[in-house]
Design a protein that fits this description.
Strand content: 25-35%
Number of domains: 3
Number of helices: 17
Largest sheet: 6 strands, mixed
Radius of gyration: 24 Å
CATH class of the largest domain: Alpha Beta
Distance between the termini: 57 Å
Shape: globular
Oligomer: single chain
CATH superfamily of the largest domain: P-loop containing nucleotide triphosphate hydrolases
CATH topology of the largest domain: Rossmann fold
Length: 505
């Protein structure tokens, strides 16, 4: 008979205007890594917040059983005492405190009520060793990389004798090397008897790491199976409710005239005097195509197009042409006026105001369209926003809800709506599907195709090789701030692109 550490029975959670969870039920076997997958908006994060006490007992219906006992957690503290810890997408570390202080916050070793700093330091050192982090416990968290901070979060959980660890998209911001380290660590935790619930859109990670898989869709439990009885195609089909034989909806594009051109563009390095970050780059992008920009992290892809946008820390030099006309771009406002728009890779920091509504975000860059003599025309604002919500199929109960209540995929659609409001001639999509599930990715890809058909120049920067090959018509590789290769997608392979990305094309 299976030994279940966690049992969820008919969990239902209702927010105003939407049922986020509807009678969700599944069991988590002790000592297993249990995957939780589903599209953005499927209810995964809401369920995690129920388990972790963010939504306390009484705010949801159903039963949570932990270690065989009915749990009525009223606070996060109650959850922690039971041996449950959660690593959220947004890390909960305090940058201006040391690693040790973060690891033992509200849990400091003490003697007669006085913090024992020596013991805290030593215990922290042992925990850091356990998670494979070779740093001084007194190091300030702000000095750590994202991957290192993720390990500190896990050390913090282990300091509380965790029995069940929940990881919500833990690898979203990590490099490939950091991902490998984290997956190995989760595997070690399993071997040491720690049960994990692992949420990820990266299905390869799921198949590599997890023992069991639960699929959620539209707030409901669709299926729970051992990994041995589930393929990636099975997961995708269950997640989206339909077969998706082609994850990339490529359509034939007819290349037209040059819509965007950069000539001899150079960007000085912001921190190293006498060195260039971007060195004499020239490129053309045509109407009627998706131009993919491929390269390794640090190659200069984002920096190039951000500098052209007038938003980089150092000013670039060179010539910029849109629709064959030379334009002067010294600021993002100049770029918007010229018809040049960047959809940032960091939509939460640079693309959206999360506490503002869909309506307010959509019109933010184009207030001149919805105002006269400085007075906002609310009817026009509603009309424009409703138009784009319908056109790009944003799922929302209302255009007045705050953007931070939406799923990642729908947040990205709001960014796209904001871009479309500016009537762009050229759109730079920087990692447009990062942190988005397969169903939402498909929707974004269809929108890209629709924009190409309307004559918008689409340039897509992506670190996902499959995405570059699946959606691009033509591909440029960047390495060391220079263009190292140009390929028609018919002639490109992952190996060819990787060789060019390391400067060996």
């Amino acid at each position: 008979m299976a030994d279940y550490i966690l049992q969820l029975q008919k969990i239902t959670k209702i927010f105003p205007g939407v049922k986020a969870l509807s009678e969700v039920s599944f069991d988590v076997q002790r000592g297993h890594v249990h995957a939780l997958v589903g599209e953005n908006g499927a209810g995964k994060s809401t369920l995690i917040k129920v388990i972790c006490g963010v939504y306390p007992y009484g705010t949801y219906e159903g039963t949570v059983k932990f270690d065989g006992k009915d749990c009525k957690f009223k606070t996060i503290r109650d959850v922690e005492k039971a041996g449950i810890a959660c690593i959220h997408q947004e890390m909960n570390l305090i940058p201006d405190m040391s690693i040790a202080e973060n690891v033992f916050i509200n849990n400091q070793p003490n003697k007669m009520g006085i913090i024992d700093f020596d013991e805290q330091h030593e215990r922290c050192r042992q925990l850091l060793k356990q998670v494979g982090l070779d740093v001084n416990p007194e190091e300030m968290v702000r000095n750590l990389g994202v991957g290192q901070q993720q390990m500190v979060e896990i050390a913090k959980a282990l300091a509380r004798d965790v029995k069940l660890l929940l990881l919500d998209e833990p690898t979203a911001a990590l490099t490939e090397a950091e991902v490998d380290i984290l997956l190995d660590l989760v595997d070690k935790l399993r071997q040491n008897g720690v049960t994990c619930i692992y949420i990820s859109h990266r299905l390869d990670e799921i198949m590599r790491l997890c023992d069991d898989i639960t699929v959620l869709r539209d707030g409901e439990t669709i299926d729970t199976r051992p990994k041995s009885q589930m393929t990636k195609d099975d997961m995708i089909s269950l997640m989206v409710g339909r077969e998706m034989n082609n994850l990339f909806p490529r359509v034939p594009h007819t290349r037209g005239e040059v819509g965007f051109e950069i000539r001899n563009f150079t960007v000085p390095h912001p921190d190293i005097e006498g060195r260039n970050l971007i060195n004499n780059v020239s490129l053309k992008a045509y109407k009627g195509e998706i131009l993919g920009i491929s390269g390794l992290m640090g190659a200069g892809r984002t920096e190039l197009f951000t500098a052209v946008y007038g938003a980089f820390r150092t000013k670039g030099t060179g010539e910029i042409y849109i629709d064959g006309k030379k334009v002067e771009i010294k600021s993002p406002l100049d770029a918007l006026k010229a018809g040049y728009f960047i959809v940032s890779e960091d939509r939460k920091k640079l693309g959206l105001n999360l506490i503002m509504s869909i309506k307010e975000n959509t019109t933010l860059s184009s207030l001149q369209k919805v105002s006269k003599f400085g007075i906002l025309n609310e009817d026009a604002e509603v009309a424009y926003t409703t138009k784009y919500v319908e056109e790009i199929r944003t799922k929302t109960p209302s255009i007045d809800v705050a953007v931070n209540t939406l799923s990642g995929g729908n947040q990205q659609k709001v960014v796209l709506a904001k871009a479309l409001m500016s009537d762009p001639k050229v759109m730079i999509l920087d990692e447009p599907t990062r942190g988005i599930d397969v169903g939402a990715k498909y929707e974004i890809y269809k929108i890209m195709n629709e924009l190409v058909e309307k004559g918008v120049v689409i340039i897509m920067i992506s670190s996902e090789m499959e995405e570059i090959l699946g959606m691009s018509d033509r591909i440029l590789t960047v390495a060391g701030g220079e263009i190292t290769g140009e390929f028609d997608v018919k002639d490109a392979t992952q190996e060819i692109l990787m060789r060019a990305a390391v400067g060996r094309g």
